[in-house]
Amino acid sequence: xxxxxxxxxxxxxxxxVSDKEITSxxxxxRGRIKVSKEILQHISDxxxxxxxxxxxxxxxxxxxxxxxxxxxxxxxxxxLTGVDLIFMVNHGDSSIEIEGVAxxxxxxxxxxxxxxxxxxxxxxxxxxxxxxxxxxxxxxICLVHKSGGKNGDFSRGDE
Length: 159
Fold this sequence. Notes:
Blueprint: E1 23-34, H1 37-45, H2 53-66, H3 68-71, E2 80-90, E3 95-106, H4 111-129, E4 137-147, E5 154-155
Antiparallel strand pairs: 1-3, 1-4, 2-3, 4-5
Helix pairs in contact: 2-4
């Protein structure tokens, strides 16, 4: 199977999903942001000057998922039925792991929405903490699971 976002003339186009089955679809993405110990302590203590970093990142991640088709040119606008984010603070390596879950009932998957949720949440953490340290690193954003659709389920092998 080749790339689907090119028409017979080699030009980019949005894939027509009219003939696809309507199914329940779910995607989980993960990523993390490495921060300084000082930032992690401020986040844990709730003492960042811009406010509750993880609460704002939670809202930003949901908003990002909802705007995915506005950001990624060939994504279909989807009626999302659910978006959630979970943040796991790791003091050992001074990082915050972000997991994003997106769900819909439709003709195309929600992988991009889950990935966008995680990316937007990580960027929001960076934005809210950059006054303290600009050396943060956003890394390892990837799809870890998807279900639904004609191609069936996918789970990353290293989980």
